[in-house]
Amino acid sequence: MNFKRVVITGLGTINPLGHNVAEFWENLKGGVSGAGPITRFDASKFRTQFACEVKNYEPTEYFDKKEVRKMDLYSQFALICSREAVKDAGLDFSQEDRKRIGVIWGAGIGGLDTFYEECKSFALGDGTPRFNPFFIPKMIANMGGAMIAIEEGLKGPNYTTVSACASSAHSLVDALNLIRLGKADVILAGGSEAAITPPGVGGFNSMKALSTRNDDPKTASRPFDADRDGFVIGEGGACLVVEEYEHAVKRGAHIYAELAGGGANCDAYHMTAPDPEGQGAADVMLLALEDAGLSPKDVDYINVHGTSTGLGDVAEPKAIQKAFGEHAYELNISSTKSMTGHLLGAAGALEAIACVLAVKNNIVPPTINFSNLDPELDPKLNFTFNKAQEKEINVAISNTFGFGGHNACVVFKK
C-alpha cells in the first residue's frame, strides 16, 4: 500500500510550566521547575507534600459555571489544550467534512477527583445513595475526548487509549495509522490527566514511587541522578493536530514537523517494573524507526521517559545503547519530566510537543537538577544536563512507558 504522509499542524497545552505552548516552551528551554507545595488539598499528613500543579488555574476563565460543574478537571484540561491546538492549526471546521475529523485521547486514570469526592460523600453520609447525576460521565476516561468532539461537532473516529503512562503516546500512534490508511483527514490526538488528589498521591506514596524531597520540591525530579528518590506527579493536558500532508498543503497550513513513524509493544515482565535490561524499550524504538523508514543513525534527539525512578532510569539508557550502538554517544538525550513532573496519561503528548518544538527550533531542552551521575549509567551518554543545547535536529523520537509494560515510541522529523 501507498501510505499517506502525516504531519503536525497545531499544538496546544496547559501544564505546570504554562497555560499555552509559548509559555511552556520558554520555561522548558530555561530549565524551569514546575514543582511546588500541593495546593489542591491538605497534604500535610502525606509522605509527599508537593507536586507539579498547573499554576493559577481558574476554570471560570475558560468555562461558565454550569460547564465547570459537569466536567472533571481532566476534561477541562482536554478542552483547553484542544482549543489552542485547533486555533494554532488555523482549522475552520465549517469548511471541513467533520465526518473525517476525529479525536483520539489518552488518559491513564480519568476523573479520579470526581470518583474520590463522590465516594467520600457517600461513605461519610448516612448510607442514603445521593450521587451527582454527572458522577459517571465526569469520571469515565473517555469523556475528555468526547467533550472535544461535542464542542467542535467532530464525527470521525473517537476513542480513548488507556495504557497508563503510555496512553497519549498510543493516541499519536493510532492517529498516525488511521490517517495513513485514509480513514481520516485530521485527528486531534493527545491526553490529559488530573490525579493530584488524595488517592493519587496516597496511592503512589504507598508504592514508594514518589519523591519525598519536601524540603526542596523544585530539585526533586532529578532523572539519572544518583540521589533521585522517585518521580514528581504532574497534571495538565497536551494536544497535537495530526493531519494528512496533502490536506494540510491544500489549505495552506503551517507544518511543524512530519509524524514519520510509531511503535508499540509490551515488556510482558511485571506490573510496575520495566524489563531491567531494557529489551522491550529497545525493541519499540527500533519498531518506530523501521515504521518511519529511518535507521538509528538518523536520530539526533531522544526525549526519554526518564521519570526519576531507580529502575526506569537505568533500564532506558541500556535500551538506547542496545538499539543505537555507537550512535548512542552522538545523539542527545533529555528528560523534560525533570521540569514538568510526570503527567501520567498526558505525558506522551506533552513530550511529543517538546520533540516537535525541538525539531522546529533546533534546541534540545535540558534534564535539570543533575548533580551526580548514577554509577550504573554510562558517563559518555549526553543527557543534556542542566542547560539546553542548540543542535541541528532533523529527527527526534519520544519514548513513553507505562505500568503493565506498555511501551510506545513516536518519531518526528523535519
From TrEMBL:
GO biological process, one term: fatty acid biosynthetic process
Family annotation (InterPro entries): 3-oxoacyl-ACP_synth-2, Beta-ketoacyl_synthase, Ketoacyl_synth_AS, Ketoacyl_synth_C, Ketoacyl_synth_N, PKS_Beta-ketoAc_synthase_dom, Thiolase-like
Entry-linked CDD domains: KAS_I_II
Domain Ketosynthase family 3 (KS3): 3-414
Reaction(s) catalysed by this chain's protein: (9Z)-hexadecenoyl-[ACP] + malonyl-[ACP] + H(+) = 3-oxo-(11Z)-octadecenoyl-[ACP] + holo-[ACP] + CO2; a fatty acyl-[ACP] + malonyl-[ACP] + H(+) = a 3-oxoacyl-[ACP] + holo-[ACP] + CO2
EC number: 2.3.1.179
Pfam families referenced in this protein's UniProt entry, alphabetically: ketoacyl-synt (PF00109), Ketoacyl-synt_C (PF02801)
Annotated metabolic or biological route of this protein: Lipid metabolism; fatty acid biosynthesis
Main EC class the enzyme belongs to: transferase
A single Gene Ontology CC term: cytosol
Active site (record annotation): 165 (for beta-ketoacyl synthase activity)
A molecular function (GO) term: 3-oxoacyl-[acyl-carrier-protein] synthase activity
Keywords: Acyltransferase, Fatty acid biosynthesis, Fatty acid metabolism, Lipid biosynthesis, Lipid metabolism, Transferase
NCBIfam families: fabF, PRK07314.1
Role, per record: Involved in the type II fatty acid elongation cycle. Catalyzes the elongation of a wide range of acyl-ACP by the addition of two carbons from malonyl-ACP to an acyl acceptor. Can efficiently catalyze the conversion of palmitoleoyl-ACP (cis-hexadec-9-enoyl-ACP) to cis-vaccenoyl-ACP (cis-octadec-11-enoyl-ACP), an essential step in the thermal regulation of fatty acid composition.
Family, similarity comment: Belongs to the thiolase-like superfamily. Beta-ketoacyl-ACP synthases family.
Name recorded for this polypeptide: 3-oxoacyl-[acyl-carrier-protein] synthase 2
Organism of provenance: Butyricimonas faecalis
Source lineage: Bacteria, Pseudomonadati, Bacteroidota, Bacteroidia, Bacteroidales
